[in-house]
């Protein structure tokens, strides 16, 4: 199937033989790597294998541009995108990237248009790595930071960022301008347009990020920048499905020290990052996200984890929940927010509330089957 897709595109080119040999070589590599992976897989092998999609698509794109009389240079981003060797979720070395980009990429940009890859990099020994989910947009922001770009443009399938997912609320409104903190909250809590990591380099270097539609470039979009004029109290609603609520009960919590430290020690040993948390005198409730920016997508509650926790306390697990986040400004200081929001939510079973830790969000867990109704009701009352 991969070979057919590549050669269908090649056969539409006026001069397919210019890159045919290179495409053939990459396809042969895929076959070899796939056979090796069938015998003994590893994260390093997987990264090497999946990198071929970026390499082939950019080669084809450069040739398409050239046939349309647009001079473009193909550049292997692995020459400059130096990362750690944490295969699958490699961390970029920002200082090394800046130095290498100045040496190898910047001179080319002064001469011609450069087409390069997202998502992939290389560690110190030259082995291919990947940056994980959202890695392509993250690459764009990292390169913009390294090259001191004036702006990052992210072209996706929707013309900007909306007050909520238009598939859930068809009358959702596009936000013309939003600040970094609001956008980061939206991305963290489930908005799919931007990955949270994309904003980190932009925030560090104060580089605006424009989000527009590749299907309709003239439709406008959303500008994400450092400050906006007159930010509203309520900005947007985000939804994250497939959430797990873990509730731990123990009388040992009462007037004692160290219980939470033990819990977090166990979670750390299993490489689990807690999302939201609330505590009482004898219990602690926390959420685990298998869909968000820091997740690998794997099942988090392994039998060994549950056994360790059960030796410490009584454990309850609820799955199939959804996290709804109201994003705004100064929410923790504004009067009447709770009444305005929870009055709407009265018909629904709210399993957990997190409010006050951030002035930019109010989060709550609801049963997954109610999630879209909750978002629709809140949007109707707060944004329409």
Short key terms for the protein model shown above:
384 residues, alpha+beta, VC0802-like, six-stranded antiparallel sheet
Q: What can you see in these coordinates?
A:
Helices cover 37% and strands 22% of the residues. It has 384 residues and is α+β, with helices and mostly antiparallel strands. The strands form 5 sheets. The chain has a 6-stranded antiparallel β-sheet with strand order 12-13-11-14-16-15. Helix 2 packs antiparallel against helix 3. The longest helix is centred in the first third of the chain and has 25 residues. It is globular, with a radius of gyration of 24 Å. It starts with a helix and ends with a helix. It catalyses: L-aspartate + ATP = 4-phospho-L-aspartate + ADP. Belongs to the aspartokinase family. GO terms for molecular function: aspartate kinase activity; ATP binding. It is an enzyme of class 2 (transferase).
